Amino acid sequence: MVALFPYAYRYLIVIDDIWDIKPWGILQCSLLENSLKSIIITTTRILDVAEQIGGCYKLKPLSHESSKKLFHGRIFGSEGKCPGQYFEVSEKILKKCGGVPLAIITTSSLLANKSGDIKEWNDVCGSIGFGLASNPSMDSMRKILLLSYYDLPSHLKACLLYLTIFPEDYEIEKERLILRWIAEDFVHCKDESQSLFELGESYFNELLNRSLIQVADKDYTDNFFIPCRVHDMVLELICSLSREESFVTTVLGDSRQSMPSSGSTVRRLSLQNTTWPKLEMSKLRSVTIFSLTITNMMPSLSCCHLLRVLDLEDCNLKEHPSLRFVVNLFHLRYLSLAGTGYSGELPVEVAKLQFLETLRLHGTGIEELPSSIVGLTQLMFLSVGNRTSLPNGLRYLTSLEMLGVDGLESACTAEELGHLTQLRNLSVGLTTGKEGRWDENMCAALVGSLGKLHKIQSLTVCTEAGWNLNGSVESLGNLSYLYIDETTSLPTWIRPAILLHLSSLVIVVVQVRREDIQVLGRLQALSYLNLSVSGNIQVLERFIVSPDSFPCAIRCRFDHLSMLPSTFPPGAMPRLEDFRFGIQVEDFSRGEFTTDDLALGHLPSLRHVNVGLYGEWEVSQEVVTKVEEKLRHEADVHPNHPSLYVSCLL
């Protein structure tokens, strides 16, 4: 067994949710005793496991005051905003929750939708047993979670149970989940002005608001791709309910099976092991495979005429010769080969799948899509990787709302994008053609197409050599997320008067101008900014933005760009919490800047500061030390005492 750490290192390791002592025994062999006071923290729900590992600490319930803050904060925003008529029933509910955070969050999320009806509060209170106050057992927690489940409308119950298809602790991509809900006919749209995906988003957000699912990665800035996961206790509950209703059949990796009752029909199959089960599959509506090896023995699914969803994402299909059987799945609505490495052909007969709404092909070796694909008039989502060529006629896919093309090669294809007027999410990677030539008209054609796409909310553009993306675009009023990597300079169509809803901007440019920073500061909805300069660090001359700049900015990151805090005067960036910037140390040794330019006190909401020190080795260590000391002093005297990380890149 190879040791995880050499003797010279001190380490802190957290191992979450251990169910058995055996894995701990294996891990322990790799952890060295080096007398450097290293720390290992493990968590478990099983007391016997904790005691065998040693140093058992039983977490105490929240205090009554902390419970009230959590409970009232979730419902009313803060404890002080709780109306008087709710005090008594709140106390009763908190007593029954017994200081268990999950119980408090789940119950308060349920009551947040009933804040105007005291009778419903009393009904909820009466439905909760007192078990958690004396013994926070699973049965008592289940009862509280069941209240939230039974309070859901029927369509959300189905959406929640559907999550049992995914393995424990699996990060579920929001976009993938909603598209699957749509394929399963869980999303019914009555308002013609609202798309099915938008309605599915509202379902997703409702489950989030009720704390039945959780955001898996809070650093995501594009709401289309935000991942979620299900808390272990919630997953246990919905798996139990799913078994009772024969909603999902799960075959697990340790030979356990969440099988339907005898005589029940298998409709949704989730395979998480290495062998294909012996099941009657003629009534299957959904197949999802999470095993890398099982696809080698995957039978033809031609007999599954009712199949709506075939999700093979991230399985290994590199050696799989053909998927021709899919053309016989006439009811198929969702097909994902993403991340499989499949390098066979997509059959020409794919045009038979007239109900197909989602086709995910990124991360495959498919060389080209058949021209017949433009006949899939119901297609809402299409993604292809940089190895896959698109056919002419893309303009006829008029139902497309989301399109991802990693290898856009021609101005002709870029021009066709302008006909896809329902697009809400567009991601394109501009690249050279198969002959290695760059189509010089492609950027202009792309910008021209953007001017026709009035519904775009998320836009990603990647180029190979930092081409010019300037042009006239007046249609991006709904844009909320923009990612560009890379372009010569800030595109002229990034204007505050047009991009009224732009909240996240990630952009890599060759050159930044002072006026670019001024423009970005006037984007009224911008909460996340990541501005990077390609190549060597760029130093701007001293300048100051206006005091009302960046009014909504929460996270700002300037990479390879010397950007001092003094650029932002008092009043600017009032909500900034996370600030990353670079410093050219030579500027301080030459006297162009002083340590007073590093003051942080005028940024009232600051929580995290990350500073990169750039320069030449010849720079005096005394200057570097003085800059570091000033930064640490500013962090120490700031009312929020923000965390500070300084990296020397000299």
Descriptive terms for the model:
650 residues; alpha/beta; 19-stranded mixed beta sheet; three-stranded antiparallel beta sheet; 17 helices; 26% helix; LRR_R13L4/SHOC2-like; NB-ARC domain-containing protein; ADP binding
What order do the helices and strands come in, and which of them pair?
Elements: E1 12-15, H1 21-28, E2 39-42, H2 47-53, H3 64-76, H4 87-97, H5 101-111, H6 118-127, H7 131-134, H8 138-150, H9 154-161, E3 172-173, H10 174-183, H11 196-209, E4 214-215, E5 227-229, H12 232-244, E6 249-251, E7 257-258, E8 268-271, E9 286-289, E10 309-311, E11 334-336, E12 358-361, E13 381-384, E14 402-408, H13 411-416, E15 425-430, H14 442-450, E16 458-467, E17 481-487, E18 504-509, H15 514-521, E19 528-533, E20 538-539, E21 555-562, E22 578-584, H16 586-589, E23 608-614, H17 621-637, E24 643-649
Helix pairs in contact: 3-4, 3-5, 4-6, 5-8, 10-11
GO molecular function: ADP binding
Keywords: Plant defense, Repeat
Domain Disease resistance protein winged helix: 165-238
Description of the structure:
- This protein has 650 residues and is an alpha/beta fold.
- It is 26% helix and 18% strand.
- It contains 17 helices and 24 strands.
- It has a 19-stranded mixed sheet that branches. The chain has a 3-stranded antiparallel sheet with strand order 3-5-4. Strands 1-2 form a two-stranded parallel ribbon.
- A hairpin with a 5-residue loop joins strand 6 and strand 7.
- Helix 5 (101-111) packs parallel to helix 8 (138-150).
- The chain is globular and about 80 Å long.
